[in-house]
Amino acid sequence: MLGDLELLILLVFSEAQPSFIFSWLSSNGYTYKATNRLIELAKQDEMNGSREALKTLLYEKIQQLRLNLEIFSKKSETLTEIFTLTLLTAPIMLYSLGIFQPWLLPQITIVLMALNMLILMLYSNLYPRELRVMKLPRKMLPIILYPALVTPLTKILFLDIPLEKLLLIFLATSFPASILIYRETRQITKELQENLEILVKASSSPFHVFSHLDPKLLKKDTKTELSKTVRIAVYLLGLWGTEKRGLAELKNIYEEILKTLKAIRARGTISALSNLVSLFLLGFSSSLITQLLSTLASRDMLASLGIIIDPAQLYTWIELYLIYASIVYTLGLALLSLGSPSFYPLWLPLSILTTLAGLISGKKLLGW
Fold it and tell me: Whole-prediction pTM value?
């Protein structure tokens, strides 16, 4: 569905009247949702025979995107700091408490899991709406679901499977989904770059737009609303004509949008990847706790230290949280880097590998 930014691009750079463009969109099957302000300004410009009010609103939107880049940077830093607390500091402290008060373990784990999901929900609108261009097709829904289902099913079928082997199975089964999601993101990125190439051709050619661009290409289905808008705009300019200055201005506007999108994605990815250290340390610390507890249990030293927990009980809850943390981290990474948690399988192998590396490093440290 086309929003205000997409509609403004169409309205500002077309020679047709706004009412005709709205009608053309509806008759050609394009859905849109315009705010009352945009509709009023479109009526005003149509009465005055100009585009000044709509153009002013468009540049306000572009300016807001620049401001959103700074806001995003601050919010992404806050989210990574919160994840450091909820993924590393809180679980280690609370599991240490659970050693002496084992009845707290179920509540602790459930609260931590719920807290992480709540944080993701609160930050779900981290990306500006206009820049949430990455959307996964519905046909790829099974790809989202199956990596998260493989591990619990494996655990049910093989109750005594060690955590390291369970994570290795999780890692192996996550690669196909990761590759498919990667291909999808690459296609979207390529499409966004192709839009710029289309605008460069249209604005630099001394001849008619359609002499260098096939109208069928401009009306072809796209993966993003932004691509659809740019191509429709060029198509309509080819139909109804425009000055070359208008095409050059449209190219500059799109370059600004694309530049802001790339900057947000880069900053989000860097912020999220910094939390890999926390995920590694979570696996490392969990390994140390379970091994030290096992060592004490093998030497009948637990009771003398006031520890009444069955080590197997602690292992179960730590195992559950480690697997859960690997998935939740990728949800946050997908949200920060691409604007949508649905792309989490892309980062799943990296997350699992980091957790596994932490676990193995903890064992190596104690010589197990």
Answer: 0.83
